[in-house]
């Protein structure tokens, strides 16, 4: 007996008019829709009078639910996988289901449509020819700062997802890692309260930190590191130390200089330490 097909169906980010005709057909034809939250998916189904049964598939039940979905697929039943919004498989357990389906020889078909990361990228005004999607960074401040620090030399435009509760802290840490680069905060894409903020990272950080709350789904786009500057490590460090406030951390200075100039953070840090030791002797 032939297996069913796993359809990866992109759904609207907010505006329900953004669904494709093919997506609506697949959602009507399959015997089952697997979704992150049935309460959200049902709004789309009701809008287009689709009565297909749903089953939850999310991070908290992915092992048991994934196994059940695989049994259905192997038994010849097709399944449509949707996320709460956008394209499944990005920052959700869809990847694992696709991996298992591929390993089992189950056909997997993409039904293209909206994607928050691509939409945010193209409205940001930042370069789109090369980009890196970093998704959600670690929740813990120390781990998040370390992750951002490792990206300070990334030349491609970077795209991050962040929560309303952590966006202010994320932007403050991004300023430390990337300096005054340009960025874009995109909130509630295609919804009534859609907002696109563009500016330098310090400007964006000041705007967001001054608000009582920043509700909604948030995507942050950050410019990549500039091409390696013609300025030498020695000159860049000398300028940074001259402008630095008293007590400024050597590591923070190294991150700022590296993010601004594209110079090696390790080389900058070593030069800062060398100069500061010289001042003390």
Q: Summarize this, please?
A:
This protein has helices at residues 21-29, 38-47, 62-74, 94-103, 116-124, 141-150, 167-178, 201-209, 233-243, 250-261, 265-280; strands spanning 6-9, 32-35, 54-56, 79-82, 108-111, 131-136, 157-162, 182-187, 195-200, 218-222. The chain is an alpha/beta fold.
Word description of this protein:
The structure is a single chain. The chain is of the alpha/beta class and 281 residues long. It folds into 3 domains: 6-114, Tetrapyrrole methylase, N-terminal domain (Cobalt-precorrin-4 Transmethylase, domain 1), CATH 3.40.1010; 117-222, Tetrapyrrole methylase, C-terminal domain (Methyltransferase, Cobalt-precorrin-4 Transmethylase, Domain 2, 2-Layer Sandwich), CATH 3.30.950; 233-280. Helices cover 43% and strands 17% of the residues. The protein is built from 11 helices and 10 strands. The strands form 2 sheets. The chain has a 5-stranded parallel sheet, with helices on both faces. Strands 6-7-10-8-9 form a 5-stranded mixed sheet. Strand 6 (131-136), helix 6 and strand 7 (157-162) form a beta-alpha-beta unit. The longest helix is centred in the C-terminal third of the chain and has 16 residues, at 265-280.
